[in-house]
Design brief:
It is a single chain. The chain is mainly alpha-helical and 328 residues long. 78% of the residues lie in helices and 0% in strands. It has 13 helices and no strands. Helix 5 packs across helix 11 and helix 11 runs parallel beside helix 13. 38% of the residues are buried.
């Protein structure tokens, strides 16, 4: 069994050479020649063997931490380098891959769901039970405007307004989703805030309108588009949370490199959310305000919910995005 001194003496220069290559790859240009990439891969495999020996023979926690950090950095350099060599992802690849991206990062999606639907349910119940709670979240003019908006059953708007309303709903919905995602750059705190705020706001509106007897009109209007819209908000928030974690847990990389490593996964999820939002906007402008019976709208909403679930659970099965292929 080699002692720590023997291992350091025999392998120390290899670790130094590997760290030099990793440092160069993590620099501004981040470029290595093909020969250097091959050398880095070889040294990385040797380092993995050395790290295994250090752990097995308990050659020192400090040495293990140093080698573990270097191994993580080298892995990330090889990973990102392999991704860049294959070029940018096409839009079709992003569309086909986004359900898989949601599943691969399911923990973020579940956390975003709790942050959104938790306040939604609690706020809705509290506003249904007590008007004072609704007034604590929304001012009287906002509540009155909501009551007036849903005081009658949805009826079909003038045909000339549908196209303009589609654009309005896309702009409004994308604005909400964008804030849930983009504010993740604040180490995830912005995404947390906007998920909780939007969930609470929507929940209070639902609870208050049900308390004053307008819940049926509201549900008739939102039934067709809400499965797509609410899921897109959660997806956007999940991507924002993932971005925030990448800035906190960098695994020995610079924050920029850490963001670059998760960038393709974030992009896939954002593209998926955008597709869901466009679907929601179309339904909200053309179907939700129509004179279709409430039962038909409920059926469309149920079908939409099933489609969302099937897309996220089964979409892209069997596909392995090229940029997730492990380096040699």
């Amino acid at each position: 069994m080699r002692t720590r001194q023997h291992l350091v003496a025999e392998r120390g220069q290899h670790w130094t050479d590997l760290e030099t290559l990793v440092h160069r790859a993590e620099g501004v240009t981040g470029s290595l020649s093909p020969e250097e990439v091959s050398t880095l891969a070889t040294e990385y495999r040797g380092l993995a063997s050395d790290l295994l020996q250090v752990r097995r023979d308990r050659l020192g926690a400090d040495l293990e931490r140093h080698l573990d950090g270097l191994a993580a950095r080298a892995h990330n350099v090889l990973y990102s380098g392999a991704r860049r060599s294959r070029g940018p992802l096409s839009f079709l690849e992003l569309v086909l891959d986004f359900p898989g991206a949601v599943r691969r990062n399911l923990a973020f999606f579940m956390l975003a769901s709790v942050l959104f639907y938790g306040p939604f349910i609690l706020g809705g119940w509290a506003a249904f039970v007590s008007e004072s709670y609704a007034l604590a979240i929304l001012d009287p003019t906002q509540l009155q405007a909501m009551e007036e908006m849903y005081s009658q059953e949805p009826s079909r708007a003038a045909s000339g307004q549908n196209a303009s309303m589609t654009g309005f709903y896309i702009w409004n919905n994308v604005g909400i989703a964008f804030r849930c995602f983009a504010t993740g750059i604040l180490f995830g705190l912005g995404s947390i805030w906007f998920l909780v705020f939007n969930g609470l706001f929507i929940g209070v509106v639902f609870g208050h309108l049900h308390r004053v007897g307008l819940g049926t009109n509201l549900l008739t209007f939102v039934a067709t588009h809400s499965p797509w819209e609410l899921t897109a908000i959660v997806m956007s928030g999940a991507a924002g949370l993932q971005m925030g974690l990448a800035l906190v847990a960098t695994q020995g990389r610079s924050r920029l490199k850490s963001l670059q490593a998760v960038g393709p996964e974030l992009l896939r999820q954002v593209v998926g959310a955008a597709l869901f939002l466009m679907t929601a906007a179309f339904l909200e402008a053309w179907v939700s305000p129509s004179s279709l019976p409430a039962s038909v709208k409920a059926g469309i909403g149920a079908a939409g919910t099933l489609c969302v679930v099937l897309i996220l659970v089964l979409g892209g099965r069997g596909r392995r995005p090229s940029d997730l292929t492990e380096p040699p």
